[in-house]
Design goal:
A: 282 residues, seven-stranded mixed β-sheet, two-stranded antiparallel sheet, B: 268 residues, alpha/beta, 44% helix, globular
């Protein structure tokens, strides 16, 4: 109503109906429908029409997940070397550091969620498709080791294209390294919750992302091991639209629950408390 | 040992018809081999074989990816590209080995896990992840040997071990050079170029801390002398298995974790 009123004022002010005010719009990549961008942002990047959950960067994710000012980052300055001397790898990363403000594809640290202390990791797909190389592997491993030592729960928000090709076999080994750290945390009785976000694929799916005690996914996100095009190339046929979506993986028994973004924080808080993590101090 | 071949030349050798497979090696290295089948959940994946036998009289569990020696065999074993049930069979047999205090010997020889609908539906990602986690704390020695192709997570799922050896001409890589070229340069035909920069050779694995040993192949490659290459593999195992079995298991597990823990290059 108020918007309508202002629209009328604007139209008059602008001298008539010809130059109608057009708010910036969001076109949903899934349903193709248009909604006001402000509404999409207000819903933390969820399409108001079809519930499509758009990608968030690590900072945005943390800000809607953890208690205000509670996040303490681990290894903020860690940067990768060039283990197989891959051409232009370092230059590419320098550029990405400038454009994203990140040093690599995961941010880890401690925080509280409605008072419950937790070790949290958030992957950021803007940085080389969230791929896992030495830094992602090391930061995740260290986060689990910290949680094991301090008897804390771990929550990982995954978003990754898989292993980082530019680090060759060294990136493959990060799968073993992170999975080993998850196992030691688990053997110590620690709770590990994975939240699969768009996209979670390849070597990340085949390592720590699939090892949560509880595996949550956001609606309709892509979850899989092999890429869609690779599979289509192998089987020489088109895949169904819903193949490898969260709902598909839920139906097949690989996802415990699909949780909408607006309910994520309270769901995580309840799960932490159900496992007794409300009383412990960081 | 031959003069050093390029990664590309070795890749050709690995794909030479007649390159020995795990089924060729088993009768020449082990005695009393009994193959065991199935993952007890879904089925029996012929891309991974498993069983029990003896190495120098000592009972061991043997797990390996199976390449076919002709088209029919390859159809049966899906060109050594396992489905989730293959990895779950491997895990079942590894757990069985732990129970009966037998060391585990894994033979890696796969282009990668199978990329198809059924593999995704049955959770290929979860199956690989589970093996990585469980093998890391398996309370019995594990030795893995890369025989030919060690491709991607599908290879690594049999590669969490105390010591890894690799045959002289074998390769171990994050993805096949073809897949690598296709992903990074959107051009699969740059396969050769990819193979040369990816660092996939046996020596690369040792220098990157991924493998502990290189097993020498006969002149011209493993296919030229099956007896000789089997003897070389057996010699390696006959030395390593008793050495690992003598170690305190908690020390062994700590060393296994550390082996992977320290791989990576970064600046704090």
């Amino acid at each position: 109503m108020f918007e309508d009123f202002f629209d009328v004022v604007k139209k008059r002010f602008n001298g008539g109906a010809d130059e109608e005010y057009k708010p910036p719009m969001f076109k949903c990549p899934r349903c193709q429908d248009l909604s006001p961008l402000s509404r999409y942002e207000e819903l933390h990047r969820v399409c108001p029409k079809c519930n499509y959950h758009g990608r968030l960067n690590a900072q945005e994710r943390l800000s809607i997940t953890v208690d205000k000012d509670s996040f303490r980052e681990f290894d903020a300055d860690m940067k990768s070397g060039n283990p197989i001397d891959f051409p232009e790898y370092m230059e590419k990363q320098e550029q990405l550091r400038e454009t994203t403000g990140l040093n690599d594809a995961v941010v880890t640290g401690t925080a509280t969620i409605k008072g419950s202390p937790v070790v949290i990791g958030v992957m950021d797909s803007r940085y080389m498709m969230g791929s896992m190389g030495s830094v992602v592997g090391e930061k995740i491993t260290k986060a689990f080791e910290y949680a094991t030592e301090n008897n804390m729960a771990v929550i990982m928000f995954t978003a990754s294209g898989g292993a980082r090709m530019q680090e060759g076999i060294v990136s493959l080994m990060q799968m073993a390294k992170t999975s080993g750290a998850v196992k030691l945390h688990s053997d110590n009785g620690g709770l590990y919750i994975t939240v699969l976000t768009d996209p979670t694929t390849g070597g990340v799916t085949a390592s720590f992302a699939s090892l949560g005690d509880i595996i949550i996914a956001e609606p309709k996100v892509l979850i899989g091991f092999a890429g869609r095009r690779v599979i289509e190339g192998t089987i020489k046929q088109r895949l169904p639209e819903d193949f490898q979506l969260a709902e598909f993986m839920h139906e097949k028994g690989f996802v415990d629950m699909i949780v909408e973004r607006r309910k994520m924080r309270s769901t995580l808080s309840h799960l932490l408390k159900l496992h007794g993590y409300d009383k412990k101090e960081v | 040992m031959d003069e050093k071949r390029s990664a590309w030349e070795r890749l050709q050798l690995v794909h030479t018809k007649g390159r020995p497979t795990v089924r060729d090696y088993i009768p020449l290295i082990f005695t009393d081999f009994y193959e065991l089948h199935g993952d007890r959940h879904y089925g029996d994946d012929m891309a991974i074989l498993g069983g029990i036998g003896r190495l120098d009289g000592r009972p061991v569990t043997i797990i390996g990816q199976v390449k076919g020696r002709d088209l029919n065999e390859n159809k049966a074993c899906n060109f050594a590209m396992p489905h989730p049930e293959g990895y779950r069979k491997a895990l079942r047999l590894a757990k069985q080995a732990e129970k009966f205090h037998r060391p585990v010997i894994c033979f890696i020889d796969t282009p990668g896990a199978f990329c198809g609908i059924a593999a995704e539906e049955r959770g290929i990602g979860e199956a690989i992840a589970k093996n990585l986690a469980e093998f890391m704390t398996l309370r019995t020695p594990i030795i893995s040997i890369v025989l030919g192709e060690g491709g991607s997570g599908g290879a690594l799922a049999l590669g969490v071990c105390d010591d890894l050896a690799i045959l002289e001409n074998a390769q171990y890589s994050v993805l096949s050079p073809r897949g690598f070229a296709s992903i990074l340069w959107k051009d699969a035909s740059r396969e050769q170029e990819a193979s040369e920069i990816m660092r996939i050779t046996a020596e690369d694995m040792v220098s990157l801390g991924v493998a502990e040993a290189v097993i020498e192949e006969p002149l011209g490659g493993a296919h030229n002398d099956l007896d000789k290459i089997s003897e070389n593999i057996k010699e390696y195992l006959s030395q390593k298995i008793p050495e690992k079995c003598e170690k305190d298991i908690d020390v062994l597990l700590k060393e296994r974790y550390t082996k992977f823990r320290k791989i990576g290059e970064f600046l704090d």
